[in-house]
């Protein structure tokens, strides 16, 4: 993409307002979603030192800035006050230092995500958009080396090759109806340098990996510290791991970013200004952002997010299935995907407020029952094909026992209902906490902790791990704290 000279607004304000450095220093790490949040969270404690200040002044001049005319997009999604949504691009450009990774036709993001930052909820959610997703692409104007394009159906990441970051930005907004405030792009060499500046990242490799297409990646099984080159191969690898799909690669990338965040949080990076300088210098030398993402803007975000915890950094992937016309492409599950986007766009996804509300609304008795104690019969009163099996699968993943599935006999209740026996109210309440909407009703035919879930026309699925109602159960969420633990053998 065309690169402009570094914006003078950032460093100039940095000189004028050194008191803000404790907030703006950590924000430089924006390019790797969970690790960036981790730096913001804890990095504020060291930014006021003179050594860190000198490093900051030097580093800000290395950020490449690009102007994006968002007015040209036409009607845009509504802005939620206080919320920041950043489009994260893992660039696959193969020029300059990236040329060693082979040739690629055009420029298409290797990774594409939206980082939703909610200071009010003290949380951040990274929504991964599979690069093979088939969406409606808007028209893109010819500009510079980009040829432009007419409106068409295509892979979401192909917009970049038609009209650069401006076209990619417009495409993501129109596909998700989420207002994007800024973008940050990181290339291969920047990612490698970031990992090496940390001294590597510890990961558990469950099976030996041999992938010639990912930089001749060769990794033994077991717990090990990945260098920058190895980490780049690991997060890019497809054919050498799992089923070779981009979806499984996204899952591994999320785990790696969580492990990186853990390394930043627990290591010496944030304890030493010189270590932080080295780390940020590696990152900023290879990143590009919009010219509206000024130092003051980054400082505001950083100070607002200073209390965020790794457990409140959530990763989700858009619910999807193989595209009917080409199984190597991805189509989004509807209406599930749009319900997720709506929750993000309106800042209703996750956060402490939702979790507190769940706790307040929960029956006290539910605290005395574990999911493994509960046996659930799942009945599909809606008629949607295979719904009972899907719901039983989610319940099993969440630790509940499933006694059977089927269709209700006789009358179907107007509202989705959890039925319980004379001694089973606590079990019913525990199950109801997992559901977006459910009515409780006693049924004398049931005994112990056996309950019956009957899904009716008002069925709205499960609350996510982040605690949000209204988001379907097909949206799988993991947080950085849990993922970083899972990355260890």
Please characterize this protein's 3D structure.
The protein is of the alpha/beta class and 489 residues long. The chain is 33% helix and 21% strand. Helix 7 runs antiparallel to helix 8 and helix 8 (246-266) packs across helix 15 (480-486). 49% of the residues are buried.
Topology:
Blueprint: H1 8-16, H2 21-24, H3 33-43, H4 50-60, E1 64-66, E2 84-90, E3 111-118, E4 123-128, E5 134-137, E6 152-155, H5 159-176, E7 182-186, H6 188-197, E8 201-205, E9 209-211, E10 217-219, E11 222-226, H7 228-236, H8 246-266, H9 273-284, E12 287-290, H10 295-304, E13 313-317, E14 320-323, E15 326-332, H11 336-345, H12 352-361, E16 375-380, H13 387-397, E17 401-406, E18 417-420, H14 425-434, E19 439-442, E20 450-455, E21 477-479, H15 480-486
Parallel strand pairs: 1-12, 2-7, 4-13, 16-17, 16-20, 18-19
Antiparallel strand pairs: 2-3, 3-4, 5-6, 7-12, 8-11, 9-10, 13-21, 14-15, 18-20
Helix pairs in contact: 1-4, 3-8, 4-9, 6-7, 6-9, 7-8, 8-15
